[in-house]
Amino acid sequence: MLTVFDPETVTLLGNVLERAAEELPREERSQERKVRLASNILSAAAAGERDPGRLQAAALALGR
Asked: For residue 34, is it within any domain?
């Protein structure tokens, strides 16, 4: 199923990704890791989550 996000949500998700990546130790900030974080954020957003803190927590919890 295709999920479409409005421009404001896309901006929110990008900001959440940046903050989540900053939480990682420098040695873990690879492109592959950021892709996994983004995937986790998109999955949570597709399920309806929009709270930045919960999106970030979901990305980091699922990515470790």
From this structure: yes
pLDDT at 24: 95
Of 22, 16, 23, the residue nearest 39 (C-alpha): 16
Tens of pLDDT, residues 12-47: 999 999 999 999 999 999 999 999 999 999 999 999
For 53-59, which contacts have Cβ atoms below 8 Å and span 24 or more sequence positions?
55/12, 55/13, 55/16, 56/16, 56/19, 56/20, 56/23, 59/16, 59/17, 59/20
Domain assignment of residue 20, yes or no? yes
Number of domains in the chain: 1
Q: Is the pLDDT of residue 63 over 60?
A: no
Please give the model's pTM, rounded to 2 decimal places.
Answer: 0.91
